[in-house]
Design goal:
The chain is an all-alpha fold. Helix content is 76%, strand content 0%. α1 runs parallel beside α3, α2 runs antiparallel to α9 and α5 packs antiparallel against α7.
Length: 291
């Protein structure tokens, strides 16, 4: 969800609601020696806050049952963001900015945490798509990353084999002068160095092994591949370049996975806290009405 001009009506509606609430709250506080949730105005603000929390929670049901065509998904997201934010000042007006008792303190703290985490989530949803588009040209479906990584390993093995084969001794009827010249002893050390580089650094990196972690650094990877382009004959440049591109694609897949984990980690934080807030709010409301 991007924060764009479509949010302006919701923003101005939220500002107007806060301003109207202040027009009610300020005279109420000035003329009431003991403002709080137990007064008529306090109960009004508390009821509004609870209603806003319930509405914000309905977004989860809307996502769980997308076949329910009750409004557009984007409209629900905007309403969730702005009306969820509006719940915070309503809670503060309800409590007259004072937490009286342990449950009230927990509720007020949870409200702050949930609203702040919601703002962080809105920022993530606004920035991550652009960041991913700019930094991950090889973006793919998140659930397919593991299978694509396996394909990259197979392709990398083929590229490494091609490097070895193009430098291997030219034997048999099809051997040419060029292939035969490539068998000079001086190349054997370079070829052994490349094979060690592939087996010790490139393949472990593609296989998510710790020993290949150094290849995550693009500068290091570029420097290593450039070294072998200079050491080995021009015939090896093609498969070496292909192998370098495979490492870059793996790097971008890792970057995409990290961004997805950030978003999923935020959800794992925001959703349980929101559920806990709503549950405690109902307990608080039930206790207030009962006693």
């Amino acid at each position: 969800m991007r924060i764009d001009h479509t949010h302006k009506p919701w923003m101005w509606t939220t500002i107007a609601a806060i301003a109207l609430s202040l027009l009610i709250y300020v005279p109420y506080v000035l003329h009431n020696r003991a403002p709080g949730g137990a007064t008529g105005i306090g109960l009004f603000f508390g009821s509004v806050a609870l209603g806003l929390m319930v509405f914000a929670a309905l977004l989860s049901l809307r996502k769980r049952f997308p076949i329910w065509r009750i409004g557009r998904a984007q409209t629900w997201m905007r309403a969730h963001l702005w009306l969820g934010f509006l719940a915070l000042p309503m809670v503060l007006f309800h409590a007259a900015f004072h937490a009286r008792g342990p449950l009230s303190f927990i509720l007020m703290s949870l409200t702050w945490i949930v609203v702040i985490s919601g703002i962080i989530g809105a920022w993530l949803q606004h920035t991550l798509p652009t960041k991913m588009f700019r930094e991950v040209p090889y973006e793919t479906i998140y659930d397919q990353i593991a299978s694509i990584e396996k394909q990259l390993i197979t392709e990398a093995d083929d590229c490494a084999t091609q490097v070895t084969e193009c430098l291997a001794p030219g034997v048999g009827a099809g051997a040419t002068v060029v292939l035969t010249l490539l068998t000079i002893p001086e190349l054997q050390d370079e070829l052994a160095s490349f094979e060690k580089f592939y087996s010790a650094e490139v393949r472990p990196y593609l296989s998510r092994e710790q020993s290949g972690a150094v290849m995550r650094r693009r500068e290091y990877s570029d420097r290593r591949f450039e070294t072998f382009r200079k050491l080995l004959p021009e015939a090896a440049n093609g498969p070496i370049a292909a192998l370098e591109n495979i490492c870059e694609e793996k790097r971008q897949l890792d970057h995409q996975a990290r961004m997805h984990r950030v978003m999923h980690g935020w959800l794992l934080c925001h959703l349980p806290l929101s559920a806990a807030l709503l549950l405690l709010a109902f307990i608080h409301a039930f206790g207030a009405l009962r006693y």
